[in-house]
Amino acid sequence: MGAQLRIYRRRIRSVKATKKITRAMELISASRIVKAQQRVSASTPYANELTRAVSAVATFSNTNHPLTTESASPKRAAVLIITADRGMAGAYSSSAIKEADGLVVTLKARGLDVHTYLVGRKAVNYFKFRNRPIKNSWTGFSDNPTYAHAKMISDELISAFIADAQVDINGVDELHIVYTEFKSMITQIAMNKRMLPLEVVESDGPAPAGLLPMYEFEPNAGEVLNALLPRYIESRVYNALLQSAASEHAARRRAMKSATDNADELIKSLTRLANAARQAEITQEISEIVGGADALASASAGSE
Amino acid sequence: MSDKVLTVEFVTPEKRVWSGKATMVSARTLEGDLGILPDHAPLLGVLVDGKVTIESVDGSSQEFNVSGGFLSVANNRVSVLGESATQ
Fold this sequence. Notes:
The complex is a heterodimer.
Chain A: H1 3-60, E1 76-82, H2 92-109, E2 113-119, H3 121-129, E3 136-138, H4 147-162, E4 174-182, E5 188-196, E6 216-218, H5 221-303
Parallel strand pairs in A: 1-2, 1-4, 2-3
Antiparallel strand pairs in A: 4-5
Helix pairs in contact in A: 1-5, 4-5
Chain B: E1 6-11, E2 16-29, E3 32-36, E4 43-47, E5 50-56, E6 61-74, E7 77-86
Parallel strand pairs in B: 1-7
Antiparallel strand pairs in B: 1-2, 2-3, 2-5, 4-6, 5-6, 6-7
């Protein structure tokens, strides 16, 4: 076998092996998207009920809660960025980071210091490589977050928010979150939202029908709000984590699908080249034999 | 007893634990044990760790251990939001 042909065959083999891997990753992600979507919808009833309750308390009490009051002169803002732990998901992590960079620019333009909190190894590596300060980071659960993770993250964020930013350098006045919203299997959009202080309570579900009833609070409105608001933040963070996880799987499935398609194409064109090389080799051998036979024939003809 | 029933939703962040019609729900709030029958006044209470009992319309009674959460009652609709729940 000629050298050219051998090299082509070797490359075909290696592309085939890669294709097997990308195909497997595509299938795995495809099955995980469904699971992730189910978890998003499983968490929706809780989020809806909680939103209802928060809007009820917010409507019927004029209690001033630290989580809803806006600072007169904000000094610092926290940004929570949710990315993936692993790559191979196309632009998933980088578009979330790009969105966050845009947000940081606007925050800085308002004269705020920015503390970054990261979820996912990709964001951590990005920030470490660029020597940017990281306030805290959590890794290892980006593709399968649980409520406990959301609680862990929100506990830290809420305590940073409650600390007075004017005196405590760890305190923040605003809390923003950057995550990737799962619109559909083909569309995922990186977006940022302000979580704290709470703005108008928005509900993702159906708007509560009619007026909210006059609630009695047990023990009192302030206590209820105290207990309710941290749960509300947790559930928002949890929802963002779940949406991001679903988006991550969808992005990875798409990236792996195009990798598999590319591998197919590559194998096709390499096979063509290998065939041409084989043919050229045969042609050359034939012409060598014919040439050799001719030379022999003319040599023996001359000796007679 | 009236023919009215409660529509109960018992949810945690990770899943819907129980939902359906019930004749009574009892739970423990910060101020003590609380039983809810149909036509209860609108209420929003903070739950403490303890048991939530739901008397279903079919006569069966479900008991859950709940840790932290809320209870809201309005228009014969009861939502129990637990941080975690086990049967």
